[in-house]
Structure formats: C-alpha cells, structure tokens
Write a structure and sequence with these properties.
Number of strands of chain B: 23
CATH topology of chain A: Nuclear Transport Factor 2, Chain: A
Radius of gyration of chain A: 18 Å
Distance between the termini of chain B: 19 Å
Strand content of chain A: 35-45%
Number of domains of chain B: 2
CATH class of chain A: Alpha Beta
Shape of chain B: globular
Largest sheet of chain A: 6 strands, mixed
Radius of gyration of chain B: 23 Å
Helix content of chain A: 10-25%
CATH architecture of the largest domain in chain B: Alpha-Beta Complex
Distance between the termini of chain A: 51 Å
Number of strands of chain A: 7
Helix content of chain B: 25-40%
Oligomer: heterodimer
CATH superfamily of the largest domain in chain B: Naphthalene 1,2-dioxygenase Alpha Subunit, Chain A, domain 1
Strand content of chain B: 15-25%
Structural class of chain A: alpha+beta
Structural class of chain B: alpha+beta
Largest sheet of chain B: 10 strands, antiparallel
CATH class of the largest domain in chain B: Alpha Beta
Number of domains of chain A: 1
Order of helices and strands of chain A: HHEEHEEEEE
C-alpha cells in the first residue's frame, strides 16, 4: 500500500442522496440572493429567509452574536419589511437619485453539513454601488446558516462582515449588502 | 482672515436671515475654526472610554488631532497628538493603551501620560544646542483646558473663557437627564462608535437636529413603513418592540409638531422637548421604575422620569439625546464635509431591557444602515449644493421671528416648528465671530 504523504483535503461537500451536488446548490442560492439585491427584488430577498431568519451585519469583527450588542444591521423579517416599505415608498426622498449595485460572490466554502441537511456556508463578496454620480466599493465575507426546508434551503442567519465595518461611512447603507 | 467671496462677515448674519456664504465660503469656515472651534469646549469622550491608566483614544478637537488619555493620578488628560521633536503624530490608531509610556515611532522620544518628556535617546547630541532636554519644549503640548461634567470630558484649546459649567449653563441638563435616569446616577459608554460623514457644512446638521418642521416631511416614508409593520404585528396579537415606535413617531403629522417647544440658552445651546412618549406602562418600564424608586425615592424618581427632552444641542459640536442615552459629536472636516461620531451609553444599575431600548435606537436610527438619517444626509447634501449656488443669497429663518419669548438669556419658542433654535445658534455664531464670547 502506498504511503500517504499528504492528508486528504478536508471538505464536507458531498453528493446528496438524489445525486445533486450540495455545494453547487448553495452557490446557486447565494447567486440568487445577490440577484435579488442587484435587481431590487426586495420581497424575493426577504423570502429567502426562514420565518425566524435574521440578517446581521456586526459592528465589529469580534462579535459572536448581534443579540444585545451594537450592529450595523440586526433585522428579522419584520424589520426587513420596514426597510422594504421604506425603499419603495413614493416619498423616500433619497431614493429619487438613480442607483444600482453589482454583487460578485466567490470563495464559497461549505463548512458544515448536518445530517438533517442544515448547512453553514462561508463566502466572500465584492459589491460596487453607483449612487448620486459616485461609486462606492464594499467587500467582506458572508456566513449563511441554512435550514433545509421542503422548498429548498432557506436562510436562518446571514452574517455579513464588512471589511470596513469599523471605518467611517461616507453616506449610509440604504439596502442590505 | 475673512470671506473668500469678499463679503463683509459682519453683515452676513441678520436676526432673521443668513447669507449663504456663511455655509459655503472656505474663508468663513477658516474663521469659524479659529474663533469658534478653537475656543469653545469640545466633547472629547467619556471617562469610561479610558478606564485603566494609560488607556487612550484619539480624537479631533477643532481640527487638531488630540489624545484623551488616563494619567497615573487617574485624571483624564488631553494632549496634542504630536511629537515635539520632529512633529510626527504619536498615535495613528483610534484607541489602545500606552503601555510603559508614550513612545514616538520616529526617534523614540518618550513621554508620560501628562505629556512630560521622560527620555530622549542619545541626548548628548543636544549639548551646546538651543534645546535643553528636560525643559518644557520637550513636552507634548497639552490642551489649554480640560474639564469634565458627570463623566463627560471636554477640552478647550483656549486658555481663557468661561468654565465648562458656566459654558454649559442650563443645557447641562443633557448630562443630568441622562445620568439621573441611571439608578446609580452615572452612565457607562458602550465602546462602539459609529462614524458617518456628511457632504455638507457642519451648521446644516445642527440646524436639522432641532428642526421640528422636517420630520413629517423628510421621514414620512420611514415613519409610515414602521407604523404599518407595527400595526401588522399588533393585529396578529404580538407586541411590537418600542423600536418600531421610535421610527413610526417620525410620521407624526406636521400640524402636531407645533405642540412641542424649543428653548434656547446662551452660547447657542438649545433643547427640543420630547415627543416620543418614552414612558410606556409595559413590564420592562415598571421593573425599571421599581429600581429607580428604590434608588431615589418615589418623588425624586417622578421628577427624573418627568423630564421631557428629545434633543439637547450643545453648540457647536454636540447633539445629546438624553432619554435614549445617545450622542452625536460633530467634527468639521472642511467647509462641505462633516464627520459625526455617534455613541450610546448604558444606565448603570438599570435592567438590561432598558439598555436594549437605547440599543434599538442606536442600531435603527444612528447606525450606518439608518433608515432615518439616509434622508437627512441626502437633504444636507442638497442644501449645501443649493447654498453654493447663485440662485439666491439668503437663507430664511423668519418662521415666528419676533415672537420668541425671552427672559434672563433664555429664549422660548412660541410653537415647536418655530425657527427660534436657528436664530439662537446664529446669535451665538455672531458673538463668537465678533470675539464677544
């Protein structure tokens, strides 16, 4: 028997029972979510979350929960709905200027898969925003905690760590990143 | 020094209108830095930001980079962030601990936390020169004056002027109201600072803080959105957290804002009375009131919780929201660029649920994802652009002008939407610019 010189690369990515590649499946979910943001399909974005799902952008990288500590975003579906209703209100004045974003998601790593199909997925994003004749760039990492449901995976918790989380913001973030 | 536009600065401010150059002229901005920001008391931080000896935070006073540091005698010192040797900034980060002392990263000059020079490497090199190691030219320059009030530390770059207490005057209620609401009588900083940059002159932010005419217009979208979701939650038999009310209150109809009041004090300080009704009868509030009654007695508790403030503005650099334990410090970066540093505090001895109210407001209204300031900052930029333009020379503050009620240096507006706070701010502005304060 040949002696192993290197340990096998550890990966939890595996074929699911019906033959689909789990990693490919979650990548599609991340890309679809990015499409919802770039396409301003806010309701579709919200529906990617479980009923008790949370969108969280920590105020600093060391935080382990958004509960009871400052966050840039810490929104359940109700608060996400407030944001949606504001973004689409005819007199949300700062929405009057043309704006758009482009998200690119990469470095997708399936870091945990439970027997019941729940997943933890890490990835990186780069987002360019054009607003008010100005371009801004944001980058950082996502951690998606996904719940397996009959309709496919849904987001129980999305953690969004901005590289510039603790830096000064030129203007603000009106929509999710 | 004066207006780049050639305008006579003495004629730029009238009792009920202000020339647009006051907001857009770089020369007037320089004059403001020299005669206002270099003289007044500037908020540098809270004592609880630097709990241990050697702890420091870097901060901007006027436009000077400074260091707030805890000295070995436990006092809080404010030093210029500059090495007396070749001028390098001593700390380029935001906070930390000086360790064994302040050491310059350029040539290792070493200082104590009161600014005094402790060591200069190879100091023989100064023999026979005009620099004598040990004399005061080798020390870090300190802020001319440092004082604190109930844990809130202020520095002034001018040796002369009113004491902090005199300068605050009745506007000290900003800190009394915040601290008295703590069963232990003091607050503790939550060490997260949100920083948001506005593309506009600093005065535009200050005017907006006490402008009761704008919320129903500017924030209607957010107020209505939150109100609809708040009602939907209640319809399903749930209890919407108070944070929904923080947002839905912005949709209070424009006619109702007249019921509130603004009160102007000397030096441009001003108060907008409260409108959010922050004393609901829910179990969290009742539990808090029990702790408060135990700490202060029922009568004093009623006085404390009866204080009805929305914002206190300490002109020209601080906006305090005492009942929700938040503050925004204003750092002018240029004539058309302003940084706000936003902090919130914990009421010492109060139940966790009460802290979570402050946190809800901090996250929803004051974080970089704010659905409220998004529209304010958009307005500020448009205001600034309009005031750079030649579409008109004057900014109107005529609303209820001539009707302000004045007794003993205290000016009260006749109605909430009066432009009295702006007139009061410009009264102070004129005094500072003329060198009368």
């Amino acid at each position: 028997m040949a002696k192993k010189t290197k340990p096998a690369l550890k990966s939890v990515a595996r074929k699911s029972v019906n033959g689909h590649d789990t990693l490919r499946e979650v990548e599609q979910l991340l890309y679809r979510q990015a499409e919802c943001l770039d396409g301003k399909r806010w309701q579709d974005f919200i529906e990617l979350f479980t009923a008790d799902g949370t969108y969280w952008m920590p105020a600093s990288p060391g935080q382990t929960t958004g509960d009871g500590v400052p966050s840039i975003f810490w929104e359940d579906r109700n608060l996400m709905t407030v944001r949606l209703k504001r973004l689409t209100h005819p007199r949300a004045w700062s929405q009057k200027t043309a704006w758009g974003t482009n998200h690119v998601i990469g470095n997708v790593i399936l870091s945990k898969e439970d027997a019941n199909g729940d997943l933890v997925v890490r990835s990186r994003f780069h987002m360019m925003e054009f607003r008010n004749d100005t371009t801004r760039h944001f980058a950082g990492s996502y951690v998606h905690h996904l719940k397996r449901t009959k309709a496919g995976h849904r987001i129980k918790l999305q953690r969004v760590d901005m590289v510039n989380a603790e830096g000064p913001y030129e203007y603000v973030l009106q929509a999710w990143v | 020094m004066g207006a780049d536009s050639g305008l006579d600065v003495a004629k730029a401010v009238e009792p009920d209108r202000v020339h647009r150059s006051v907001y857009s002229d770089p020369g007037i901005f320089e004059l403001e830095m020299e005669r206002i920001f270099n003289k007044v008391w500037t908020y540098v931080g809270h004592e609880s930001q630097v709990p241990a000896v050697g702890d420091y935070w870097t901060v901007q006073v006027g436009r000077q980079p400074m260091i707030m540091v805890r000295h070995s005698d436990r006092s809080v010192r404010v030093l210029y962030n500059r090495c007396p040797h070749r001028g390098a900034m001593l700390y380029g980060d935001r906070s930390g601990n000086v360790g064994k002392g302040i050491i310059c990263s350029y040539h290792s000059w070493q200082f104590d936390t009161d600014g005094s020079c402790k060591a200069i490497p190879l100091d023989k090199g100064y023999q026979g020169t005009r620099l004598t190691p040990g004399d005061e030219n080798c020390n870090i320059k300190t802020a001319a004056r440092v004082e604190s009030y109930r844990g809130f530390v202020f520095a002034s770059l001018a040796a002369d002027g009113p004491s902090l207490g005199e300068w605050l005057g009745p506007a000290r209620i900003a800190f009394d109201d915040m601290c008295d609401r703590a069963p232990e009588g003091e607050v503790e900083v939550v060490p997260t600072c949100f920083r948001v940059i506005q593309q506009s002159n600093w005065k535009i932010f200050l005017e907006n803080q006490l402008d009761a005419l704008h919320p129903a217009v500017t924030h209607e979208s957010t107020g209505r959105a939150a109100g609809e979701v708040e009602q939907a939650i209640q319809k399903k038999g749930g209890n919407a957290p108070l944070s929904y009310h923080f947002l839905s209150a912005f949709a209070t109809p424009i006619s109702k804002w007249d019921a509130f009041q603004t009160i102007g004090y000397r030096h441009g300080h001003c108060i907008l009375t409260g409108y959010m009704g922050l004393r609901p009868r829910d179990p969290d509030t009742l539990a808090y009131e029990k702790v408060m009654a135990k700490a202060y007695g029922k009568k004093r508790m009623e006085e404390i919780l009866g204080v009805n403030i929305h914002h206190v503005l300490l002109y020209p650099g601080l906006s305090v929201q005492s009942p929700l334990q938040q503050l925004r410090a204003v750092r002018p970066l240029g004539v058309d660029k302003t940084l706000t540093e936003i902090w919130h505090f914990r009421l010492k001895g109060a139940p966790e649920a009460i802290y979570r109210r402050a946190l809800g407001y901090y996250n929803l209204v004051n974080s970089p994802s704010t659905m409220v300031n998004a529209d304010d900052l958009w307005n500020f930029w448009k205001i600034h652009k309009g005031l750079e333009s030649q579409g008109g020379d004057w900014v109107s503050f005529h609303r209820n002008a001539g009707q302000d009620l004045e007794t003993n240096d205290v000016t009260t507006s006749v109605i909430g939407t009066s432009e009295q706070p702006m007139r009061n701010q410009f009264k102070a502005w004129t005094q500072y610019i003329n060198g009368a304060t």
